[in-house]
């Protein structure tokens, strides 16, 4: 019987999900050891045996350590999650199941096996909070933990990375790797070799943000604003001068629009491709990027909003041209730009680690991507107490107006019962509109969005109180723990009796995971709760991804109940998810070559930085000069100078190579017109360009070495490095591969021009 049950379960499980039975057996054995372990004085293992980690004894020991250090006895399901992560899987565990503790016990396990762990958080706040919160647990096991934040100095970073477990935001980790990438003295290096990455909010980091490049740029220059272009496109109107494609990722000038632009500028666009790019960037900024949806303006600056988290994306900007175009649109001065010295996508950053594991509330829906891009499997951990949240089917309305009415009525009715209500909106602008409409009805909602993120903790702390009415963007969708009654036990029972937290989504997201994250705010740890989404036929999701399908007609009360409507909504969401996956795949195809080249050049660079490879190369390339310098300046000085010279040219040539590849990538789609496969074309040029770069490094190194005066500072002899560097993330998300589209547009225009 039992065997059949397991067989059926395996068939029904989504492919790629891990069988938990072996872990559950170990956890069951651990229960028998609990009393004995409780009697031990010292929980530190006497000898370090990597095979011990993952055993029942290990489980009993970390459980006891957590109990002593934090006053929390880990549940069986938490230990199951630990074992799955120690096997290198991504675990799916719902909100409130205690993933922070699971992550810490896992990190401790890896550290006890002798591997340094980087616990990758989504922001500085969480990195520090988790490191400090879990510190006593590591202490008891004889381990050390540290954290890195944006403000940490180089020395503090080095110290934090020297710990057994280091908590850091993914961006800080990446910036440290990039800065190390241009280090000329081994003593200045900050990051140790990558061993284990333990990724929190794994779907968000590994899938949604995988393509985001982290950038290291040299000394900042003021950017160039294009206020005339912004003013010009501001006068154009949609439908007449330009059209937008259904997915809202592309904007096209109509022939009429082209005429208007040409008249206004007094030029023939066909003869000025550079101007075409400027016009397109301005048009993108004007027509496709919406204030209070894609970005907010605060303190005279444009701040990008992270679509999946609904909060300001710190340190993020769009590619330079688009960034300046948005600033011009908002009549702000252009922010600074600089030469890109090196860049690294989050996916490449994480793939450097030989061992990756992670945790999130929503992993199963991206199981295929996790396998395709990282070779990871998903382990679905059951909740500690069964989830009793009632998820109602979507309520579907023909028009946005009908939905809005129903939404306001629903909020008012639910709120009147005293039950806490959390309304999740799709963007900042919507949260503000809704706030106003609710106030019009005499209600007093509390709004949480990217504009008031400083008050986040206080707002969330009260969102589960009796009568609370919270309107929030996706900010309240991830990692926020809403307690019924706001932590007051008496009120908790009262709120539970009312039905617990009720979540209302004002529309389905482009990703089902975001819907699930929002729903997951209710019903944590077996709490009662409920959720519902309201959808209209005019929602962006449907108009963009199912434009040709009409909703079935509504019942007399205005609600569409025909079963086909729900199928249509699910279909539109799957199309949206498919589009995003295709964009991810496409970017990865292009970055793969670059990553291989980077890995290879870094290996060469390391041999120069840590060894004598630079001196050896120059001794062979310029034997006479080498001997001559050795006699005049001494062996030590020549060897040091050789290292400095070769490192300089490696870095300089790599920067130039990156610039070449990015131009190549931008222009490659023009060749698709000649029916060449753009990716093949890209690879065909990238590979010889890399070889040419290696030759160039050698040529320039020799040239410098022949001429250099070793008694003077080499920096003054053409080896000057940028005096300052700065780091940021590039957000190219709104249109996928932005440049493909801009260039497709240029190509389309040129074709039209010829006709
Ligand atoms: P998640 O990230 O999975 O939503 P958290 O790590 O934020 O959950 O934990 C949610 C809450 O549950 C925290 O207040 C934490 O202290 C508590 N918690 C976690 N594990 C246990 C446990 N074994 N016993 C009691 N409380 C726990």
CATH class of the largest domain: Alpha Beta
Strand content: 5-15%
Shape: globular
| Cα distance spanning the termini | 73 Å
Provide the CATH superfamily of the largest domain: P-loop containing nucleotide triphosphate hydrolases
Low-confidence stretches: 733-755
Output the CATH topology of the largest domain: Rossmann fold
Q: Which kinds of small molecule does this entry bind, naming each only once?
A: adenosine-5'-diphosphate
**Structural class estimated from helices and strands:** alpha/beta
Widest β-sheet, arrangement of strands: 3-4-2-5-13-1-14
Tally of DSSP helical segments: 27
Second rung of CATH, namely the architecture of the largest domain: 3-Layer(aba) Sandwich
Number of strands: 22
- How would a crystallographer describe the biggest sheet? 7 strands, parallel
> Mean pLDDT score, rounded?
87
Report the helical percentage: 40-55%
How many discrete domains?
4
Key descriptive features of the protein:
755 residues; alpha/beta; Rossmann fold; Pre-protein croslinking domain of SecA; seven-stranded parallel beta sheet; disordered C terminus; binds adenosine-5'-diphosphate
């Amino acid at each position: 019987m039992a065997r059949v049950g397991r067989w059926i379960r395996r068939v029904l499980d989504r492919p790629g999900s891990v069988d938990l039975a072996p872990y559950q057996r170990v956890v069951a054995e651990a229960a028998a050891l609990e009393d004995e372990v409780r009697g031990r004085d010292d929980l530190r293992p006497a000898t370090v045996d990597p095979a011990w980690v993952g055993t029942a004894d290990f489980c009993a020991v970390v459980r006891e350590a957590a109990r002593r250090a934090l006053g929390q006895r880990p549940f069986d399901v938490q230990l199951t999650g630990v074992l799955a992560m120690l096997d290198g899987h991504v675990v799916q565990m719902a909100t409130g199941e205690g993933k922070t503790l699971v992550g810490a016990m896992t990190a401790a396990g890896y550290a006890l096996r002798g591997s340094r762990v980087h616990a990758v958080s989504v922001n500085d706040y969480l990195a520090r909070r988790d490191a400090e919160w879990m510190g006593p647990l590591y202490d008891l096991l004889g381990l050390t933990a540290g954290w890195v934040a944006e403000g940490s100095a180089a020395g503090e970073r080095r110290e934090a990375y020297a710990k057994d477990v280091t908590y850091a935001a993914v961006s800080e980790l990446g910036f440290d790797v990039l800065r190390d990438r241009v280090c000329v003295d081994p003593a200045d290096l900050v990051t140790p070799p990558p061993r284990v990455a333990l990724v929190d909010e794994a779907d968000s980091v590994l899938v949604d943000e995988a393509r985001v490049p982290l950038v290291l740029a040299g000394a900042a220059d003021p950017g160039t604003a294009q206020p005339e272009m912004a003013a010009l496109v501001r006068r154009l109107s949609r439908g007449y001068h330009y059209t937008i494609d259904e997915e809202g990722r592309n904007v096209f000038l109509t022939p009429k629009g082209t005429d208007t632009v040409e008249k206004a500028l007094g030029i023939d666009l066909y003869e000025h491709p550079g101007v075409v790019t400027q016009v397109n960037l301005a048009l993108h900024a004007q027509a496709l990027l919406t204030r209070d949806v894609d970005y907010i303006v605060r303190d005279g600056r444009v701040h990008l909003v992270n679509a999946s988290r609904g909060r300001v994306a710190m340190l993020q900007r769009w590619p330079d041209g688009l960034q300046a175009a948005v600033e011009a649109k908002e009549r702000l001065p252009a922010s600074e730009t600089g030469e890109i010295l090196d860049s690294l996508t989050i996916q490449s950053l994480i793939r450097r680690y030989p061992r990756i594991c992670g945790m999130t509330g929503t992993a199963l829906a991206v199981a295929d991507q996790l396998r395709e891009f990282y070779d990871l499997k998903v382990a679905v951990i059951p909740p500690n107490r069964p989830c009793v949240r009632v998820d109602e089917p979507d309520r579907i309305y023909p028009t946005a107006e009908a939905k809005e009415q129903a939404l306001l009525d629903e909020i008012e009715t639910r709120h009147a019962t005293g039950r806490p209500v959390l309304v999740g909106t799709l963007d900042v602008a919507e949260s503000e509109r809704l706030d106003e409409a609710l106030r019009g009805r005499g209600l007093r909602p509390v709004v949480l969005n990217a504009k008031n993120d400083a008050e986040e903790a206080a707002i969330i702390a009260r969102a589960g109180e009796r009568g609370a009415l919270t309107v929030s963007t996706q900010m309240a969708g991830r990692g926020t723990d809403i307690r019924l009654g706001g932590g007051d036990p008496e009120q908790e029972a009262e709120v539970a009796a009312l039905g617990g937290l009720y979540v209302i989504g004002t529309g389905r997201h482009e990703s089902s995971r975001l819907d699930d994250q929002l729903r997951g705010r209710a019903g944590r740890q077996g709490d009662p709760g409920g959720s519902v989404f309201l959808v209209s036929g005019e929602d962006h999701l449907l108009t963009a991804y199912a434009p040709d399908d009409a909703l079935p007609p509504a019942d007399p009360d205005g609600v569409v109940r025909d079963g086909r409507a729900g199928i249509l909504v699910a279909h539109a969401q799957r199309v949206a998810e498919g589009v995003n996956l295709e964009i991810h795949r496409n970017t990865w195809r292009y970055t793969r070559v670059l990553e291989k080249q980077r890995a290879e050049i870094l290996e060469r660079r390391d041999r120069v930085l840590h060894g004598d490879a630079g001196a050896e190369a120059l001794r062979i390339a310029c034997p006479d000069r080498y001997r001559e310098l050795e006699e005049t300046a001494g062996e030590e000085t020549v060897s040091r100078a050789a290292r400095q010279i070769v490192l300089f040219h490696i870095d300089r040539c790599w920067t130039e190579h990156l610039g070449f590849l990015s131009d190549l990538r931008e222009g490659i789609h023009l060749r698709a017109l000649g029916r060449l496969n753009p990716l093949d074309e890209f690879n065909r040029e990238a590979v010889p360009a890399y070889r040419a770069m290696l030759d160039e490094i050698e040529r320039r190194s020799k040239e410098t070495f022949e001429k250099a005066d070793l008694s003077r500072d080499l920096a003054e002899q053409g080896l000057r490095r940028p005096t300052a560097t700065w780091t940021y993330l590039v957000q190219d998300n709104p249109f996928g591969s932005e440049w493909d589209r801009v260039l497709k547009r240029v190509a389309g225009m040129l074709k039209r021009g010829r006709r």
